[in-house]
Design goal:
Chain lengths: 104, 187
Amino acid sequence: MTELTLQVVLTVAAALVGTGLFGALSQQSIVMVMMGLELVVNGVLLAAGAAWAFLTPQLPGAQVLVLMATVVMAVEMAMGFAVALAIYRARQVDTVDAAEDLAG
Amino acid sequence: MTELLVLAALGGVAVCTGVLVFVVDSMARATFSLLASFLATGAALLVMDLAYLGLLTILMMTIEMAIMAVFMIMLMMNPAGLVPMTMVHNTTGSAVVGAAAFVLLTVGVWTTDWPDRPGPPPDDATAQVGEAVMGDYMLVMILVGVVLLATMVAGIALATHRGRYDRFGPDLDRRAPDDPVRGGLPR
C-alpha cells in the first residue's frame, strides 16, 4: 500500500510538472510564464515530500529538498517580478514575444 | 487506504486547479486557481506528516499569490477577464512537450522498483529538519541565506527607477548635466 501511495503521489507530481511546462512554454504574458514555472516547482515540492514520507523518513535530506524548492520559488517570484517591472518601465513590454531581441 | 484516498483527492484538486490556471480568461482567477493548487499540495504535505513544511507552503503561497494578483492587475491588459482573449503561442508544441514530460515521468514512476520504507517516521518531523539545517545541512542554510540576500539586492536594483546616481551612464562616460546645484538635486 505504501508503494502504491508513493506512485500515486509521484504521478500527481508528474502531472503538475507537465502542466507547468505546457504553461511556461505556451503563455505570452511574462507573469503567466512565471505561473507555469511555479507549477513545475509545485510538483517538485510534492515529489520531495512523498520521497521523505514513503522512502526515507529516517533521513532529513528530502525535507531539506522541500525547503530548497520553497526558496527557489521565492527567489523566482522576486527576480521575475523585478525583471518584469524593469522591462515594463524601459519599454512598456509585458509579453515575452515583445522582448524577443533578448534571446540568445 | 484512507491516506491513499485523501492524497489522491488532494492530488486531483492540485492538478485540476493547476490546469485551470491556463484555461480561465481572468488573470485574477488564474492566480487564485494557482493558489488553490498550492493549498492542495500544502495539505498533502500535512497528510504526509510534514507539519512544518506543509504550513510553510500554505502560508507562503497565500501571501505570494496575493502579491501576484496585485502584479496581475498592474501589468495585465485584461486582469478581470471581461473580454475573452487568449495570449498564447506555439500551443501544440508546448502541449507535446508537457505531455511528453508527464508520460516520461509517469512511466519512470510506475516501472521503478521502489524500496520498502526502512522504518516508521520520526515522532517529530519538524525537529528532524530543524536539527538537520543546524547540523549536517548547515551549508545549505548558509547558501540559502546568501542567495536570498543577493535576491533582495538584485530585486531592488532592478525594480527601482534609475535615480541621480545613474546620471553618468552605465560606463560613467556621460557628461554631467548643468545642475543648478552641484551634485544634482535629490528626487
